[in-house]
Amino acid sequence: MRNGNLVQGWMTLAGIVLVVVGLFGFINNPLVGSQANALIPTDAIHNIVHLTTGLVALYIAFGLRGENQVNGAIGFGILYVVILLAVVVSPTLFGLFAIPANIVLHLIHVTLAVVSLAVGYMARGRLTAATY
Amino acid sequence: MPHGIWHELIHLGAAAVLLGGGALFVFLSIRAGRGSPPSRPIPAVGTGQLRPVLTILAATLSVAAASIHLAAAPVHLEELGLLGWGFVGAALFQGAWALSWAIQLSRGIALYGIVGSVAILAAWAWTRTVGLSVGASAAVPEAIGVPDAAATTFELLLISLLAIRIGGVERRLDEALRRLPALPAIALVPAVGVVFLATTLAVSLALGHSHAPGEAPDHGAASGLAADPGH
Prior knowledge:
The complex is a heterodimer of chains A (132) and B (231). Chain A is mainly alpha-helical and 132 residues long.
């Protein structure tokens, strides 16, 4: 697999997972939703954050190329470091989320941050080397 | 089945996919790196990456402040009547300015942005120090809340970015960043992301949709943060 393909592959996977998790919260069903008797009481804002960051990841995967794509992936990793720190400090993101973040959600944030930074950084090194 | 279990399962599934996929992509990246020649430092040349990044950031800040003003408008229209339309006016100005800025990057539009933002900031400062002459709390300075603090921060940052553009500081900053040419491009995603999250929080508080820690989403309860949406 080539440089760009690895970054594109990871950002695609991250984007799809985030979009699916975000969309699942909006689907009107007895398991997940905002209705009073739903098994999973999701809140719309939390879903919007997942959905938006997922769309950003998909934009980086398919809307950017070359160095811009690599920089976007590193930026995405930094964004998730910020989100991770904010959610660790305040599990409801300062009252924004109805459901406080748990260890699994922290694990998702850590993975998104670390892998985006690692894949982006290694691809950047190869891009620099390929210039010469 | 208890409420929390399905929620946990969704996040657990997402975590498993991301962990497995992430490990695979890191492994493939390491393997791809072994076949490449050693990397060398990027040459010290002007980057030119700062200009588009600052342009996007300025438009984002204006749209974010407009969203907060729009979210705060209904409460203020009810409380202040005609004066409350100032929030709608501010939101329209900031939204229209962002669109104009995206279409044409001119010194004139930058100046309009600075003058408009300073006027909005002055109105906000007046309400926080002297107080309005109408409404339930006439002549009493309002408290600073999260939504107006966020909008004010965005407006101050916008003025700073536009001053950098007009004052010719941008070129010098671009030169200063030549040893880190990718920094502006890398910083764009987290910067826009943080503005987006702060705006979501501020709009949510302005609309009264925030939740105290652990609270059910009943859309009517008090938040742990000050929710004063006013300017």
